[in-house]
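Narrative of accomplishments. A recurring question from our advisory board has been how the design workflow behaves on a single, concrete structure rather than in aggregate. To address it, we present the structure tokens for one chain from the evaluation set, followed by the sequence designed for it. No filtering or post-editing was applied between the two.
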């Protein structure tokens, strides 16, 4: 190799090495930015001293980001702050940060007067380059302190560290595997927002703001166990009323302001047992009638009718259902009583109609075959045309639903074990649940085999279901109550009670029914649900009748409430009427 070639080769090698060195230098990661979070000055009663550590830990956890932002450890800050008392001035804060060799310092104070709390905080660059981020706020209650501090941390992440996602949260938040162990509590902490302000080792399972229950309304307490509830315009004024029934009373209310105003009531006799109430515009005149299913006691004639049902309790029971109207401002019975169970249901291409079914004798099943549409003729309830539904349906246990939008009829049915099933028009089961749905203790006697040995079937009336399209996707959903399992389902019928439950929406996904959403756990027994405009503001709500959990073992003396949930429906085709 010539001398000139040797020189060229050496230059090439040197340039290659230098280029690699420059590349390595360019790829060398930058040192993380350091932040010193100083304890806030506290001007508050001693019982709020915990907030000093809580706010400090909350800010530290939200600002820290692995390999990018490092929060100076607390012991080092305490050492650097020796001799400092009370509030820290901006000059003192920067001096302390320089001792700690921090790039930023975060400091502030909190003042509490009664329930009012003032927060004054700043995030300041130590070198003087960059704008400080400040928080000046006054809250009306302690509940607002933590949300304000959280928003302050998010603002710092956005303005100083350029770390936000579409939801305003840090995009490079530290993972659970590398986070300080003090924030990992039994694996339940999903993100830093779950840390309770009371103590960094506490997990906030329910956000405090949500405890104020925005979007939920609860009526005043009502005497008695509400077993039936429906909503409609019963006085023809264009506004909806809510109608309820207990075992011996029917009440009509209208929601006004934050309560229910009584518009009328109807008291049954000692021989009446009201099972259900429905509100249906049977005459299509924009004025709904109230229909009450009534199981009435009659004196037994001649004692027992057969040996197998020896001991008839001295009376028999038969259906004597009737209609009510508001006449001259009073709720009055119209027409004659009829021997039918009555219910208002929504049928395809028909809308909400009144249907009826006859009761079997004591030795027969509680529902005789055949469901009929009912009508009002001359003020009396009469039969109309047969309703073509599968034999598994009775007037109380089904809702017609097109679950897959194929324009073919399916039916959601609550069976005798309170399992929810979806069946086709031929009666074949498409899907069946393994959990209990629509459970109530609203019951009446069914088939009596031998009363001497208490061999008597009991029929439990399910709470109502709604078929609607709340999300506007053109596919119907089933909204129904579901029992939160308890041991009473294994007890004898006369001892059952259901003290908690939830409401959920179900849709079909070609494999089975899947949950769309559900409410929080509801304390008490949900006896009925409707999707309707209870507030008369042009928006639908989910409306429930709930019997108090503490009264379920003495239903005759129970108390009930009406609860409504606002529904955020924007231009949907929600079809519940």
């Amino acid at each position: 190799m010539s001398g000139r070639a040797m020189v060229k080769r050496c230059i090439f090698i040197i340039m290659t090495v230098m280029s690699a060195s420059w590349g390595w230098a360019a790829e060398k990661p930058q040192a993380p930015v350091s932040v010193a979070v100083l304890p806030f000055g506290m001007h508050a009663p001693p019982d709020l001293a915990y907030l000093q550590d809580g706010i400090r830990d909350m800010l530290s956890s939200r600002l820290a980001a692995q390999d990018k932002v490092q929060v100076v450890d607390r012991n080092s800050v305490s050492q650097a702050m020796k001799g400092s008392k009370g509030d820290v001035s901006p000059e003192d804060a920067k001096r302390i940060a320089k001792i700690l060799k921090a790039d930023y310092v975060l400091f502030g104070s909190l003042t509490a007067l009664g329930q009012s709390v003032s927060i004054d905080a700043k995030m300041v660059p130590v070198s003087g380059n960059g704008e400080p981020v400040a928080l000046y706020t006054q809250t009306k209650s302690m509940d607002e302190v933590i949300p304000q501090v959280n928003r302050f941390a998010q603002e710092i992440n956005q303005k100083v560290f350029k770390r936000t996602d579409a939801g305003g949260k840090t995009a490079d938040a530290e993972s659970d595997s590398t986070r300080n162990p003090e924030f990992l509590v039994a694996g339940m902490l999903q993100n830093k927002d779950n840390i309770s302000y009371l103590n960094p080792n506490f997990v906030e399972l329910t956000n405090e703001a949500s405890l104020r229950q925005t979007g939920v309304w609860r009526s005043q307490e009502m005497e008695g166990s509400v077993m039936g509830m429906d909503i409609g315009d019963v006085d023809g004024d264009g506004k909806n009323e809510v109608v309820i029934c207990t075992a011996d009373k029917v009440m009509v209310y209208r929601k006004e302001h934050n309560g229910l105003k009584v518009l009328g009531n109807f008291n049954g006799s000692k021989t009446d047992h009201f099972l259900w109430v429905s509100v249906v515009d049977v005459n299509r005149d924009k004025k709904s009638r109230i229909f009450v299913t009534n199981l009435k006691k009659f004196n037994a004639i001649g004692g027992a009718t057969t040996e197998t049902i020896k001991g008839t309790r001295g009376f028999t029971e038969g259906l004597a259902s009737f209609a009510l109207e508001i006449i001259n401002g009073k709720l009055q019975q119209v027409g004659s009583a009829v021997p039918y169970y009555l219910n208002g249901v929504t049928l395809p291409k028909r809308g909400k109609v009144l249907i009826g079914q006859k009761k079997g004798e004591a030795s027969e099943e509680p529902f005789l075959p055949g469901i009929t549409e009912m009508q009002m003729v001359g003020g009396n309830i009469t039969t109309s045309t047969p309703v073509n539904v599968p034999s598994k349906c009775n007037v109380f246990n089904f809702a017609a639903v097109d679950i897959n939008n194929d324009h073919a009829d399916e039916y959601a049915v609550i069976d005798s074990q309170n399992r929810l099933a979806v069946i086709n028009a031929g009666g074949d089961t498409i899907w069946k649940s393994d959990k209990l749905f629509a459970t109530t203790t609203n019951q009446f006697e069914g088939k009596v085999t031998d009363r001497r040995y208490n061999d008597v079937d009991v029929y439990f009336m399910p709470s109502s279901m709604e078929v609607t399209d709340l999300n506007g996707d053109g596919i119907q959903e089933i909204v129904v109550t579901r029992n939160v399992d308890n041991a009473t389902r294994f007890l004898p019928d006369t001892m059952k009670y259901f003290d908690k439950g939830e409401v959920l929406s179900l849709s079909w996904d070609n494999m089975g029914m899947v949950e769309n959403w559900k409410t929080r756990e509801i304390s008490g027994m949900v006896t009925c649900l409707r999707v309707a405009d209870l507030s008369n503001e042009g928006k639908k709500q989910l409306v429930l009748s709930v019997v108090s959990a503490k009264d379920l073992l003495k239903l005759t003396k129970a108390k009930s409430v009406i609860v409504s949930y606002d529904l955020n429906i924007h231009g949907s085709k929600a079809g519940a009427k």
